[in-house]
Design goal:
The chain has one domain (2-196): Tetracycline Repressor, domain 2 (Orthogonal Bundle), CATH 1.10.357. It contains nine helices and no strands. It has helices at 2-15, 17-33, 40-64, 66-72, 85-106, 108-126, 133-154, 161-181, 183-189. The radius of gyration is 17 Å and the shape is globular. Residues 192-197 have low confidence and may be disordered.
């Protein structure tokens, strides 16, 4: 039972629940900026969809980072052996399917945005992360997207570009800082973040 409990906690940690909550909150802020013209249930479902897709992206990123995390963050669930890579991949699939299903249920527009974000997160984790600053910029852009995404559910884009701009700049700086912290493991795997340029 103790092992099962650790595995469950590991799965939760992989999704980074605080990041998921912040993503959902950003969608709600975007909906407010868009005029709150959408139905409350639609806003809630769009926020949940974004949180689920964020969790999937976080978990997939950890699967791809398992080797450098053995150096940079050996306490993470995958290098620590709390969760197997296969279980993490299954988790990613379940979260993506659930998130996309909710997003398409809300509207075709939110469904298309969520699908594009899910594809971009996959591309980042598998390919773009290793190509240099483009990966950092993509992560920042995806974080900023939550605000116009929520605004479209709430009515129209309105002033969602204001928090989106701040989010882009904040996350771009955060990615650079993370790149500096992870420099040793990234050099071993030849990942070229802005910090290594």
């Amino acid at each position: 039972m103790a092992k099962i409990g650790k595995s469950i906690r590991g799965i939760v940690v992989l999704a980074r629940p605080i990041n998921c909550l912040l993503t959902a909150g950003s969608v709600v802020v975007g909906a407010v900026a868009g005029g709150l013209g959408g139905a409350p249930v639609d806003i809630a479902m769009a926020a949940l969809a974004a949180a689920l897709i964020t969790g999937a992206g976080n978990a997939l990123n950890d699967v791809q980072d398992i080797e450098e995390d053995r150096i940079n963050q050996p306490q993470r669930p995958l290098p620590a052996g709390l969760v197997s890579p296969l279980a993490a991949i299954v988790m990613v699939g379940l979260l993506v399917v659930s998130g996309l299903g909710l997003a398409w249920w809300v509207s075709p527009v939110t469904g298309m945005i969520a699908t594009a974000v899910a594809l971009a997160l996959t591309g980042y984790s598998i390919w773009l992360k290793q190509t240099g600053p483009a990966g950092n910029i993509l992560v920042a852009a995806l974080a900023a997207t939550t605000f116009p995404y929520g605004a479209l559910v709430g009515g129209d884009l309105g002033r969602s570009w204001i928090p989106a701009t701040f989010a882009f700049l904040y996350h771009l700086g955060r990615e650079v800082v993370k790149g500096i912290e992870d420099m040793e493991g990234d050099q071993r795997r030849d990942i070229r973040t802005l910090a290594l340029r």
